[in-house]
Amino acid sequence: MQPLNKPADDDLDFSSLPPGPFATVAEMHMSRTPSPAREGDAERRAQGLYAAAVRAYETAPAGTCTFVCISDTHCKRTCHHLASTTFGSRLGRAECPTRTVSADGELTLPPGDVLLHAGDFCTHGTLAELESFAAWWHSQTAFCQRLLVPGNHDCALDAQYERETTEEKEELASSERLHGCGVHHHALSLLHRPYIGSFLLFDSGVTTTVAGFTVWGSPWQPAFWGAFNLPRGPQLAAKWAAIPGDTHVVVTHTPPEGQGDYVPRSRARPHVGCEALARELLHRVQPAVSVFGHVHEAAGVSVARCGSGRTTVFVNAASCDTHYDAVNPPIVFQLRRSAEGEAVVRVVGTDE
Questions:
Q1: Which distant-in-sequence residues (6+ apart) come within 8 Å of 37 by Cβ?
Q2: CA–CA dist 209, 214 (Å, integer)
Q3: Inter-residue contact 290 to 252 (CB < 8 Å)
Q4: What is the chain's percent helix, strand, coil content, to nearest 5?
């Protein structure tokens, strides 16, 4: 499978593909000062993918649920290649009937039914960052549902996170004075608001209101830095063993080992994903799609064949590159049911 470098009118049906290498989209952004040519290619690609996502959503047959996936946004609001007033003015209403552009020219997310965020919406994990994100998150009312899991940078949501600095301890005390509870409980109340379609997934699931697909999410990761860390082994395995076997979409912050988890500079363990999660996904759960982030340099889409012969699509939806620049556009996929009742995946903008 080729990298996601241009949109296609006929999107890829992953059910016919053998397992393949990960299709990275981050490689052109490894330099801190990319060339104008590379920047131009990236902008055209991002804008082409956006247009393809609009077309796919507007022409989706009945019974299709469209998911828009982002992760590792780190206080950014959109891919900067989609924040151009020039791009906004080029897309006429006939070509892009659902687009909206804010007063400052920032293009909104592609249209869809469900917005998925796989964690790390904060950078330092402060309550102020979380409150700012929550205001933006709840403004995305074009989506029927908004589902997210926290990541290791979203420290305010982890009750077990050890606050070490004076600033962090003062924030904790201030939250208790202002809200009558600690940072953790206040942070939860900011994001988990089912009555307006916002679900914070902590080892829990939800059924989509469009087409009735099941989504399950969890924030845990192999011990690294920040929040939601567990040691590799039985503790993490127990978390993944709780994933229901009939789940269509699994959302985690960590990648499963071997899919969207390659870190070239990590010589001791270049594949940093969770091996226990990979076992559960490929041999027991076998979901249609696995969505995650965490590893910025491996953003993109891949596919692997499960033990039964079914395929799972793996989506590393990291928006930021290794320099924390928001260079990767959202990844959009659609689910529908076959005549036999099986979930069929279509990833928008991929090609062979």
A1: none
A2: 10
A3: yes
A4: 30, 20, 50
Q: Report the mean per-residue pLDDT for the chain.
A: 79
Can you say whether the dihedral through the CA atoms of 164, 167, 170, 171 is positive or negative? Answer: negative
Angle ∠(122,72,245) on CA atoms, nearest 5: 110
The answer, yes or no, to whether residue 32 has pLDDT greater than 50, is: no
Closest by CA position to 271, among listed 260, 281, 280? 260
DSSP state letter for 351: -
Sheet strands side by side (includes 65-70): 12-13, 343-347, 331-337, 65-70, 114-117, 145-148, 198-200
Residues 31, 317: contact at Cβ < 8 Å? no
DSSP string for residues in 168-237? HHHHHHHHHHHHSS-HHHHHHHHH-BGGGTEEE-SSEEEE-TTTT-EEEEE--EES-SSSSEE-TTHHHH
Instruction: Give the CA-trace dihedral at 305, 306, 307, 308, to 10 degrees.
Output: -90
Closest to 315 in 3D by CA, of 335, 298, 301: 301
What is the widest separation between alpha-carbon atoms in the chain?
A: 59
Residue 298, helix vs strand vs coil: helix
> Does the pLDDT value for residue 43 go beyond 70?
yes
pLDDT in the model for residue 27: 33
What average pLDDT does this structure show over 255-276? 86
Domains of the chain as residue ranges with CATH: 12-347 (3.60.21.10)
Question: Distance between CA atoms of 248 and 319, rounded to whole angstroms?
Answer: 23
Q: Read off the pTM.
A: 0.82
Give dist(CA 284, CA 292) in Å, integer. 18
pLDDT band per the 50, 70, 90 thresholds, residue 350: low
Return the SS3 of 148. strand
**3-class SS of residue 291:** strand
Question: What is the strand order of the sheet 300-305 is part of?
Answer: 23-24, 300-305, 311-316, 289-292, 249-252, 214-218, 204-207
Please check whether residue 268 is in contact with residue 274, taking contact to mean a CB–CB distance below 8 angstroms.
Answer: no
150, 177 in Cβ contact below 8 A? no
